[in-house]
Amino acid sequence: MDTDDIGLFGPGSVTWKVHAEPVLIVAGLRSLYLQALHPRAMAGVAQNSNYRADAWGRLLRTATYVETTIYGTTAEAEAAGRRLRTLHARMRATDPGTGAEFRVDEPDLLRWVHVTEVESFVTTARRAGLALTDDEVDGYYTEQRRAAALVGLDPAGVPGTAAEVEAYYRGVRPELRMTREAAETALFLTAPPIPWKLSRPARLGLSLGPPRWAYLGVAGTALGLLPPWALRLYGGLGLPTTALSAEVGVRALRLALAAVPRRYREGPLRQAAMERADRLAAA
Predict the structure, then answer these.
(1) Alpha-carbon separation of residue 58 from 10, 12, 188, 233 (angstroms)
(2) CA torsion 155→120→58→104, rounded to 10°?
(3) Is the pLDDT of residue 203 over 80?
(4) How many CB atoms lie within 10 A of CB 140?
(5) Mean pLDDT throughout 132-151?
(6) Alpha carbon distance 64, 56 (integer Å)
């Protein structure tokens, strides 16, 4: 393995600029709220995982996968993609509407998950205050076609600009709806079990405890950042005031996270990638 391989993107990419933002934790949650609105995608998750029993483990594995594709070497990113494709290839689920069995790695479902993730990442970063031009946003979507290929999608069939993402959403919206599983998942995402060590104050009778209140704030912000049409599916009004409140919240969170020392904000994969980039620049 080339120890100085920069990976799929690199320091000059829009992808590295966007994913340097710790506030993308909100984006990950936003994408899950969106994904839950697709009945077949939701069925695939619900029937093939124990996400309720292992919510934080699943979140950590997903975050590690994304960080590997962004900051790992090319070999590491491709290996992560192979493992994910192998896992998905074994999974089947039953369509909640027709009762027909389907594969969870159908291109339509993979495309939905990909688009909701990357759109959530770049939209959240921008609304949190990251300066991105329209050309950079388009560049991010184009770059992320490389990540789409890792999960088995044909990059040519994946939206590569903001306009194409909007067109994709318009086309898929008739398939989306609020189901019982979507409602239950949204409730779970909003109030998941807090790890024991963090929830200990609550167990000792000290109200909900700071971690619970902090998480509820993040979840509320993620919901408020949803597109108006998605908020309406969740029963909200999608009012401009909702979006404004969420934007104020995510900007405040970004400022707060910026005050955290870098060694706590950056994961080991990003640190290793930056070291490789520095070695290449020096060479």
Answers:
(1) 27, 31, 14, 26
(2) -40
(3) no
(4) 26
(5) 98
(6) 12
